[in-house]
From TrEMBL:
UniProt source species: Aquipseudomonas guryensis
Gene Ontology biological-process annotations: positive regulation of metabolic process
Protein's name in the database: Helix-turn-helix domain-containing protein
Tree of life domain: Bacteria
HTH araC/xylS-type domain span: 214-312
High-level lineage: Bacteria, Pseudomonadati, Pseudomonadota, Gammaproteobacteria, Pseudomonadales
Amino acid sequence: MIRIALYVCPQTVLSSLSMADDAFHLANRLAGERLFEVSRLSADGQPVEIGFARLRVEGDLRRADDADLLLIPATGSAIERTLTGNPELLAWLPARPASQQLASLCSSACLLAAAGVLDGRRATTHWSLAGAFRQRFPRVNLQVDELFTEDGNRFCSGGAQAGLDLCLHLIAWHGGDWLAERVAGALVFERGRGRQSRFAPLLPEPLQDDGLITPLLRWLQQHHAQAIDLQCLAQQANCSTRTLLRRFKAATGLTPNDYLQRLRISAAQSALRNPARSLEQVAAQVGYADRATFAKLFKQLCGETPGAFRKRLTHHPASTH
């Protein structure tokens, strides 16, 4: 029997906790035996208040001393609050033997990283936390494009539903690939969904509201399919190219050309939903005369070819929401 300890704290995201709990209990039912023994624990063994819920646990951290796997569900995006709110866990984690599996879902990779147990290892987390994670934990080899990572006995998942990808991987690890496939089928969930980068928005939120750049971004939304160069944008904004480059980068975090390419590919994602339009027509519609250039940029930014993107929409429309 595989003993799994789920760590619960006030920052725990309940949907992440229930998703992991449900996956392992479903695996037991489909396996026809109690393959996984799942327990919940808190730092001090006391019930945990999360919003309006009061969760009972089976013990404190000592209960996980002999667990085969400690899994930390997601803890939200307020990383500093999570780190300061879990000192007992951060002190306990470094003493874990290398043979014990430690896993985090989504943002909780920050807890493993803060304890030092991910130093020099591959890890992932939600794509929106990548910048802050790299700055705070430079010793971790962050692979934010991945839905989940495995490095020795250290496992991490990306955002939200990527936690289920990792749970299925752990079920396959301990119970066999056949069992993971059955669990995925029962949950109507596609295994091997590719890379997390497919789900990140191509266009960043503006870093600041700039009276010069904000109107230009609106203009680009309407004219991105035209032949546009830096001089054209500077004339539209009524400023020098040097001023445009400086202000554009400060407002968006991207160069004008990078932003334009992302805008075009984002428009292509919408256009590809229409099966009546060929790839050549979609490329031309968003501003590319050459299909090969379009396909190369699409794969670079989206992690898959335009054809694969369209096929996924056709076969799994719900996965695009």
